[in-house]
Design brief:
There is one protein chain. By secondary structure, the chain is an alpha+beta fold. The protein has helices at about 55-65, 85-95, 100-105, 130-140, 155-165, 235-245, and strands at about 5-10, 20-25, 25-35, 40-45, 70-80, 85, 110-120, 120-125, 145-150, 175-180, 190-195, 200-210, 215-220, 225-230, 250-255, 260-280, 285-290. Strands 3, 4, 5, 6, 7, 8 and 9 form a seven-stranded mixed beta sheet that branches. Strands 12, 13, 14, 15, 16 and 17 form a six-stranded antiparallel beta sheet that branches. The model has no long low-confidence stretch (mean pLDDT about 90).
């Protein structure tokens, strides 16, 4: 299932008829609660369409409490020391079935639901956001953690306060939606505003030699698709090589590089993070600014 997306804006929209939600930079996920006897009962799908059910046994158990025929859209996050830890949630998403239960105990996931796409088997995507939000709150009212709906306000002043204060816990922006808007899968009909144009990305691979990588392959918040960074400058290649030396490279794979198409890379465990900037000319270019201390 394709998901709805958001376009970046520079200022907080304030026209009438808007809803504001905190933007959780986690792992985008759709939860499907199937009827018992129809398939596995619960299916977890990432934004790319990849099925990640086995990576989150804790969320699967929680989702079994949802009514049959429910489909939710939201973000998986992991909280550490009162802040969202994107590297931790990416580590959860990449877990093998054998490692997933242990990681679920050590790094329990939370699911921040911001939309309901189906309830009782009925497709709610054509309905207004205001109606879907009301149904979402009803569905989750008695469920409790780890599946909860995100906060929402229609007050732009409260939204502005959220925008200024929530970065303290790792929430860097807001998503803005029209109350009368249907769920438009695959289009950027929502709006988002962030404090910064940089992101914490998880390093999942490299191109070139491990000792002096040409580029890093990273995963950004809200999107599980690996992307190849622009070529690293010489000094950063040295630092990246030193950091990668502590990791055991995995299987070969391919990822999209701007101007080159699919290029081969070697996977590494998701244990490094990098601060990256994204810019757009004809295509979105991801530039690594610096490596961050291992978590």
């Amino acid at each position: 299932m394709k998901v709805a997306l958001a376009q970046t804006v520079d200022a907080l929209p304030r026209e009438a008829g808007l809803a504001y939600e905190p933007k959780f930079d986690g792992h985008r996920m759709v939860i499907f609660r199937e009827a018992e006897g129809e398939g596995p009962g619960v299916v977890l799908q990432a934004r790319s369409g990849r099925i990640v059910t086995t990576a989150f046994p804790d969320l699967v158990a929680a989702a079994r409490e949802l009514p049959d025929g429910t489909v939710l859209d939201g973000e998986v996050v992991v909280w550490r020391e009162g802040r969202i830890d994107f590297a931790a949630v990416q580590g959860r998403a990449a877990a093998t079935p054998g490692r997933a239960p242990g990681l679920a105990r050590r790094l329990p996931a939370s699911y921040a639901a911001f939309d309901v796409l189906a309830a009782d088997g009925a497709d709610l995507r054509p309905r207004r956001y205001a109606d879907r939000r009301e149904r979402l709150v009803e569905l989750l009212a008695e469920l409790g953690p780890p599946i909860q709906h995100v906060p929402m306000t229609t007050d732009p002043e409260l939204a502005a306060t959220w925008y200024e204060t929530l970065p303290e816990i790792g929430i860097e922006g807001l998503v803005v939606k029209r109350l009368d808007q249907p769920y438009k899968a695959g289009t950027r009909a929502w709006r988002k505003i962030r404090h910064t144009d940089t992101w914490d990305a998880v390093v999942v691979g490299f191109t070139g030699a491990q000792q002096r990588p040409a580029s890093l392959v990273v995963v950004l918040p809200d999107d599980d698709t690996p992307v190849v960074s622009s070529p690293l400058p010489p000094a950063l290649r040295v630092r990246a090589g030193a950091a990668l030396a502590a990791l055991t490279p995995g299987e070969a794979d391919t990822a999209m590089a701007v101007g080159l198409g699919e290029v081969p890379y070697r996977r590494v465990p998701p244990e490094l993070t990098a601060e990256v900037a994204t810019g757009t000319t004809r295509h979105t270019v991801t530039t690594v600014l610096r490596l961050k201390e291992p978590r």
